[in-house]
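To whoever picks this up:

The parser on our side crashed when reading a file containing two proteins. I've narrowed it down to the boundary between the first structure block and the second sequence. Both blocks are reproduced below exactly, byte for byte. First block:
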Amino acid sequence: MTLSRRSTRGNHNRAVDVLADRFDVTFLRDFKDAEWTDAGARHIVGAAGLPFRAPICEKIMSNALVSRLLAQNPNTDHLFIFDGETIVYRTTEGEFPLVAESEQAVLECYRKIRDSRGEINDKGEQIIDLKAYSVGPHYAVNLLIGNRDGYPDPLFTTPKSAVDAFGSGSFRAGGATEVLATRYTLSPEENGEPANRQFYLVEDGKQIFYSRDVDRNVLRAECRHGRNHTAIAYETGCGLRIKRLIFILPAEPGMPDAVEVQRVTVENRSGARRDLRIVFTGMFSLASPITIVNDVIFANIVHESELICDGSRPIALSLNSKPRNFTAEKRFAMILRDGEAMDDFCMSLPAFLGGGSLRDPELLSRLPSRMERKMAPFFALGKAFSLDPSESADFLSFVGMSIRYDGADAGPKIEEDLRNLINQYSVPDAIEATFDQMLSGQERLAAYLCPKTGDDEFDRYVSINLPFQVYYQTFISRAFAWTQKAYRETGFREIQDIFASVYYLVAAGKAPLARDLISMWARNVYRMGYANHDFIRVGKEPGDCSDDPLWLVQAVYRYVILTGDRDFLNAEFPVADGDGNRSLWDTLMSILIYCGRISVGAHCLPLLDKADWNDTLRLDNHCLKGPQKEAAYRTQLEKDGDAWGAPWKNTMSESCMNACLLKIAADEIRELSAGLGKEKDGMTATEISERTRESMRNHAWKGDYYARALINDAREGGFTYLGAGEDGLSADPGINGSYFLNSFSWTILSDIANEEQIDRMLFQVERHLKTDAGLKLCTLVHYDLLGVNTATSIYFPGDRENGGVFKHAAMMAATAALRAARRVRDDVLARRLISLAYFTIEKVLPYRTLQTPYVTKGNPRFCTQYNNSETGENIGPILSGTASWLNLAIFEA
């Protein structure tokens, strides 16, 4: 016996590649697909004449009727050729007719594939046929956000939701505080617990409808994901029309801090009276989700069910938590119809399911209305109603949270909050007025840039969906998206989202909100000038990533230039050390001195430390956190008698990207100082800017490219730099060196690279970094030669930081290329730069995935984080800096 192994990337034995060999190639017009029918790869099922590349054969093979057909001819190959509604069936023995039932089964598979990609209409809404096949994990996803403008700490407290085409997903009140639970699985297709936002209809004691099931008793079903809302509609075989509208209520005084509403309308079109029940379900999150990892028993027994009543009338379900630190947050679920609440409820998922499943639960006709001592987060709320012919009924399903930010018990608060909520939304059409208010607010925010290029798809995207994603991630960034399901805080470097959104906020009259948001980052800078890498109310990882504080300068500069609000620079904020306040201007100067004079290496360039913008780029095995470095620095000053601002003595690696960020910060501080009478600070900024540019040109330029980092510790192997030709670190035998996209982008954006250098770098970008999927982050690197353990080494080539197309880095490059094209004197070079920029933008525009949904995947309304550079597939999470930097590239254009 001789054994061998095959892996996905090493196995090129694809069924579709042998299709032309086994059938007459003239039949294989348009797009085609094929799958093996056996593990030994002997025979195939193929399809031709598809409207786009799609995995139709796996659907055909799984159909019972077709499966029997294949079983009758197991030792041959099968081919289905589609020409509209006509099917030709062939085997290697010839052409044969299909029996009517099999033909209809195959045709139904074709229709479901054809209709699966949906469309984007003139309003920017994604229209999805729920009876078609699902494309992929991100494709049919929407994002919702609340509005806490004018309330304390909107960055941390603004609620947000992730919703798929069936209304599933989760809901957060702020930061990582969950209301509707996420689901902790390895499947990117699943965000929330499956019961979330779902409902059933019951008639004569029998289930006649389930909101996630479009196969039984559903003739048509459609989802429309619009800006900040999702609408879903069904038409049943028994004569009902059902509509759903899901969005987050804007904050109002006296209301719960976070409320998501689902309005369900049931219309009777059957011509007969209907006596029905509706049952809504969901799953509260645990107050401390981390307990699922540590102790599932603890997570269950420290919460019990709670019923909130108005006198003797039950109105809402909640959780009663035993640990005192959980009591400041009170979750609730409630339904209203004409001001009337639920008839009955259930808070036991095992009891609700019985021997069934969420598709067919046992308890629907009557819920037991029993309180539970454990496994309490599940909830089901029932309500009976009757409809005469042509009559309709509206139900409002609310889930939300009342929070005491001072840490006190939120029990009394939720009672008052719910009373106000019930009073307001018991009034007819009140929810419609709130919805219209939300829509008009989004219209105002998006009004800053509405291009008229003649390309309707582009204009619609830039006018509607792009500004919404930028706005969403200004508050949340990567803390919450469809595939980011676990706990994540706000990252310091994610202030880059404000670089784009500040234009929209200021234009919409929300400059105070932009100022408030930027202030949150200012509070996370330490007195020495380093910053917390992540934070919500308390920061963590101080000084770990050396680029963090430098991004703040650009955000402040953009805000001040746009608004003229120079008083902001004199405003005082708490210092992250916890030892008092200081002005924003002094915070910016501390960043400039720390990054430009103290935390520098042998060439007076900023240190790389644990990482700069690239989290996986760690070149030194021993790095100090901010407080440790500060302690070592103070000891050095005391020992040597140096003044504050002298360089910290070290042999660590220097980041050339940080040098670019430093020069930009110094130039912007110099410009701001002129209007403040800060001439001395302006001179300091000028000196740091000029010294940085000179050092970069003298030490980081390697003849064909700017280095990514300089290595200063006489490392074994004689390596002195990473990135650019002849660095000795290429893992690609066809390339003599390694090349990083950010060295091209940021030496241009910082005005360090001259025209000749731009020309030479562009040649290397075009040659080594440009792929069919876009501009990849870097070529392959032998990091192990440096004796360091970087996270890049855990990825396959083409994924993420190991040669993936990081789309926000690609958009930085597009922005840089467009800026350079206006400055260079060589017209041919300018045209090459413009060509690169528009090629790169084209690869990032999310609606392009409609053309090849099963190949590029992603989401047609929202940018994802990166593309695999080999396959072109859009990889999540949906949220990243991509949308913001795409917006900035469009501004540059």
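<<boundary where parser fails>>
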Amino acid sequence: ATASPEETRVVPGEILVRFEDGIGVAERAEIRQRAGVVAKRNLLLPSLQLVRIDPQTSASAALTRLNRDRRIRYAEPNSVYSLQRTPNDPLTGRQWGLENTGQPFGGIPGVAGADISAAPAWDVATGDAKVKIAVVDTGIDYFHPDLAANMWRNPGEVGNAREANGVDDDGNGFVDDVHGWDFVAADNRPSDSHGHGSGVAGIIGAVTDDNLGTAGINWKASLIALKACGLVGPHNGCPLDALLDAFTYAGRMGADVVNLSLSGAGYSQAGHDVMALYPSTLFVAAAGNSGADLDNDDRWPCEIELVNVLCVAATDHRDELVSLSAHAWGSNYGARSVDLGAPGANILSTALHNREFFGDRFTTASLWDYAEAADPPDPSRWRRTVSQHTYGVGPLIKDSPEGRYPNSADTRVTLTDPINLVNRHGCVVKLWAGLETEVAKDYLRVEAAVHRDGQYHELGRWSGSTNGQLSTFEAPLGDFDGQSAVYLRLRLTSDEVNTYDGAYVTEVVVRCSYASLAGTSFATPQVAGAAALVKSHVPGLSVSRLRERLLRTVDPLPSLTDKTVSGGRLNVSRALTADLDSPATKITAGPPAVSNSSEASFAFSASEEGSRFECRLDAASFAACDPPARYEQLDDGKHEFEVRAIDTAGNVGSVAKTAWSIDTSPPPVTIANGPATSTTSRETTLTFTSPEQVDVVECRLDEAPFAACTSPVSFDDLALGEHVFAVRARDAAGNWTSPPAAHSWRIVEPSGDAPGSETPSSPSTIVGAPRAPDLGDPRPVSWALVRTHRPRLSLRIPLQRISRVLRLGLASVGIVEADCPCRLSLRFHLDRSTVRGGSATRVARSRGRLALIVRLTRQGQMQVRRTSRVRGSLQVTVVDRHGSATTERVPVRLRR
């Protein structure tokens, strides 16, 4: 047969309508009346109904009215989809798809290993009857001796004489659905009258290791027969309503896998909805046989984008995508639409068991070279007779119609025209005959040859007596399977003694239980069968993980690169055994969140022994590494370390990461206020600040140890003489201010005015009030007059270019008027951040110019580099030698 046309067809006058939830019976009737349709039946998918169009209404008008109604989710034609039928390619091989040793087909040698690796897979798993595979097709020949033991038997409908009691025992809405259901004829006999579905079923689960026929991918399975495709009548093909109900039935009955060896143009929303309703069922669909790119040519059901739908292309015995240039048909493909390939050309599988390919009951014109009974006797020729005989009345042929056969007899009857057994396998010759011969001496033989006058080979021989009754004799055709021309011959031979009545043959037939099939229809069950085998080995595997396992373990093929999603052909052995679990990676040691070290070391481990590692720092490329990973000379700032494990199977684990910051700069501390360089006061208060967030601040006076403190710090009852106050801070990275900020001063005895001294001019004040004379105190009474007005400071910073500031620093000029030499402190403010700078000053004794260069820190330079215009401020504090301070803050503007 040739592949069926794949154009979309519809069932005339029928539409599928899905109502919105909550639309009641009366409202549905009103909707149908307005659209010009009447209800035909409810489908199993909730709110989905098949309707018939009123003869007075056109299909397009009805569809338009229904789809415009907001109470309707969608309405679509009841389409008919085509089976991916077997193309008519002459074949001579056997089950190369399971194990390819390089056997030729069509005169072209195969490629060893171009198969699904079933043999090594069977060392791991052979299937399980608990796994249910629904075959949505033309039905299944469930009495076939190579399928019967693997047919599903509905547990709710078998046992205790429930199989045919006419009762819906399990309450699923189907009466006596023992093996499945026929959704075309609406009965419980989903038997196959075509052979397509039986061929699919045999690939998935023909009984194996039983000395009979072919091997299925699953030696044990439960095959559910769901007939949704009819091949006679007006609905020749697969009506969408039958398909949808079959899908729903499969989902409801808990099918693990559904095989869909069919394809068609167009899209069905209802089909999408049904498959989405059963996410625990894997739907495996055929890509189709028209050699099209499905990325640009939509085909259903491959067009459905759900995680539980797989689309399959077909490959040949040389691991090539089946193409129109090399075959009478071509597999569809699609880099985004078709998931993987599987063997689909010249696939041997089960056929209809009782289908005759040759039969003769000797009632018509002669197909053999026998003589009629009225002809002159010829001892070497068989005769045909229609008269009464030992075995009744009716036509038959006999080796010796005149009576007993003679001694040393050798009589023959041969077919005049050959039998064509192309694509047919497991063929047998069956004879209905009566026999009376000397036991183990004289024989009825059946023989075959490929040329009428060539050498004949014995298929079987029998002797003895049938005691006056007709019996059945059967002989396999063996090596003559698949031949385009087979000649049959019957012989009776005897020895030199004893004669008997001989052989009476009333019927000769040739039946074949297996056939070579081709098309994506028969690539699809390779994948469905593999999925079921994996499911039997790992019962708890989810559909998404099952799909992932099938796709990630393919054998990559050049012919499928850019033609399928996976780029490869099914390998069921790898799907069963491959390690696809990614190792977990854990960082067990690293630097603290904030560190003052420019070095870092990381320890890490993987959940799987033997894993190797790849590391990277700060978004660099991953590179091989071993624990511990060490890094040196790291810059200040934020860093991120990432590591991933790769197990011995090549699975890459998820990335483990950790972030930390490096800060090697000690926090600056500024003593803002303190005592004058020389003072008579034995009490003092000092204030200090730091522009950074610090964890700990420590102070000390003179040689005392550092101790925690906070600003301000006060001291009293200090001794005369030199004092030094020091303060330091520690930031989150552990950096200490180095050297500590320090302030020195001297406490002196108060003294009075000297004779002739000049009264200080205003504004002045007395620092340290004079004490009353104490006759017991030998120190002279005195006091000091000290200027206390603050220094005057005028500062200007012209607009400057960023490049110059980065290279030379931020330059400013100003005028200072103070009792100097002075101390200077700086803060550079940029975008709400305070940046520490450096300075150089030249200050006149009384009135002069202040020359200032601020060097930016690395943090400041990075911020300046990232923008074209910078706005900020510079805060300058001048403290004269008496401790009086003036602070001025001036704006800063920079540009490129």
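After patching the parser it read the second block fine. DSSP finds eleven helices and 56 strands in the chain. The longest strand covers residues 502-517.
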